[in-house]
Design goal:
Elements lengths: L2 H6 L18 H5 L13 E5 L3 H13 L3 E6 L3 H11 L3 E3 L2 H6 L5 E4 L6 H10 L3 E5 L6 H14 L3 E4 L6 H11 L6 E9 L19 H17 L4 E8 L5 E10 L2 E8 L8 E5 L2 E5 L9 E5 L4 E4 L7 H13 L10 H18 L7
Helix pairs in contact: 6-7, 7-11, 9-11
The structure holds NADPH dihydro-nicotinamide-adenine-dinucleotide phosphate (NDP) and 1,5-anhydro-D-fructose.
1,5-anhydro-D-fructose binds next to loops.
Length: 364
């Protein structure tokens, strides 16, 4: 991150904090210009690799909320590619991922396959000279992430992890609140992400060979949120319970930052509140569920002041799509808001969580 938030960590903060008036009326000034309308972003031509669930949401977000276009979709299956293209108004289909990445109409490839395949599919796109947006979790582990980033560096193409939360308006707003010192020095971050998935050994979330489990799919949001607010931790402690298939069913994770800490949880076995909080020496921010999607938050200060940031709810992936378009037009290879180092740090934390809880994917 999170340069703002890093300076908010106890070890980096001055002992006397600046004091700001805590009124909601100040907020528009804090966030103005931080999150531009995605419709003002340049146009790019997207190619979608993998015609699954999230690929459909992404195609709609691009179509309905940006000036960019999804020009092609690639699937392992021709019928699925054609059905997807018809549903989302895409004019070119490829029944082969290599054909998709080599399509000269495509500027940026969006990799929307299971975690187990992100490395190979991102490398395929980079080898074809394409910019790439890779769904979260970026890869199965840090070593695979490095392979992608080394290849991108050598090819001079843009690559970003699709951690869409970082680009949402309420996250920009709460970063503004932190940067103004309104909650003081941060001492604690909490976040949970739990969704109920009935046991099905064939489902990608329960399948070890697809790098299933709670952590890479759901837990990556709390982990990335803590990294965004506090940076990379100095210690990682995890407790986990595994599924019948040997992936993580649920986890409790504590990240240490000297005096500050983050307490995080994730589960495949229940719909949890999916809320987050950031507590400081002068107050706290309570982010409503679903914290990682467009939402609202409340600021509660120790001096009695309280106010609410009223966000919208609904689709939010256009913000990350717009970030990619802006970065590509600017000739950047990484986003300043979701840097390669940010991705490596998150992957390293998750590697350590898996090491402590005994989760290993086949062929890693
Ligand atoms: N940002 C967000 O809100 C969300 C992000 N995600 C992320 O998106 C990615 C995909 O998740 P989701 O869309 O739910 O998954 P789906 O299973 O719905 O789709 C994945 C697609 O990947 C392709 N694929 C390629 N190889 C395989 C394989 N061996 N097994 C299965 N599918 C394969 C398939 O497309 P085809 O057959 O067409 O080639 C499949 O449809 C994950 O990284 C996940 O974490 C998921 C949901 C929400
Ligand atoms: O990012 C995500 C958000 O929620 C989905 C379920 O609805 C997850 O499976 C997914 O990976």
């Amino acid at each position: 991150m999170s340069n703002d938030a890093r300076t908010a960590a106890p070890t980096d903060q001055p002992t006397s904090l600046p004091h700001f008036a805590a009124t909601a009326a100040d907020l528009p000034e804090v966030i103005s210009g931080v999150v531009p309308d995605p419709r003002t972003a340049p146009t790019v031509r997207w190619g979608i690799l993998g015609a699954g669930n999230i690929a459909g949401s992404f195609a709609e977000a691009v179509r309905d909320h940006t000036r960019a276009r999804v020009v092609a979709v690639g699937s392992r299956d021709r019928v699925r590619a054609e059905r997807f293209a018809t549903e989302h108004g895409i004019h070119t289909t490829h029944a082969d991922y290599t054909e998709l990445v080599e399509d000269p109409q495509v500027d940026v490839v969006y990799v929307a396959t299971p975690h187990s395949h992100h490395r190979d599919h991102a490398l395929l796109a980079i080898a074809a000279g394409k910019h790439v947006l890779v769904e979260k979790a970026f890869t199965r582990n840090e070593a695979e992430a490095r392979e992608i980033l080394d290849a991108a560096r050598a090819a001079g193409v843009f690559v970003m992890e699709a951690m869409w939360t970082r680009f949402l308006p309420h996250v920009a707003a709460l970063r503004g609140v932190i940067a103004r010192g309104e909650i003081g020095q941060i001492v604690n971050v909490t976040a949970d992400h739990g969704q109920f998935f009935p046991f099905d050994p064939e489902h990608r979330l329960y399948a070890p060979d697809l790098a299933g489990g709670a952590l890479l799919d759901l837990g990556v949001y709390p982990v990335s949120f803590a990294h965004d607010v506090l940076g990379a931790p100095s210690s990682v402690t995890a407790v986990g319970a595994l599924t019948e298939t040997g992936v993580d069913g649920q986890l409790g994770i504590t990240l240490g930052y000297g005096r500050a800490m983050a307490t995080l949880s994730t589960t495949l076995w229940s719909q949890t509140p999916n809320v987050a909080s950031i507590s400081g020496t002068a107050g706290r921010i309570e982010v409503e569920g679903t914290f990682y999607a467009p939402t609202s938050f409340r600021v509660v200060r120790h001096d009695g002041a309280e106010w609410r940031y009223e966000g919208f709810r609904g689709e939010g992936k256009q913000y990350q799509a717009a970030e990619v378009a802006r970065c590509v037009e600017a000739g950047l290879t990484e986003s300043p808001r979701m840097t390669w180092q940010d991705t490596l740090d998150v992957m390293r934390t998750m590697d350590e969580v898996r090491r402590q809880t005994g989760v290993v994917y086949p062929g890693e």
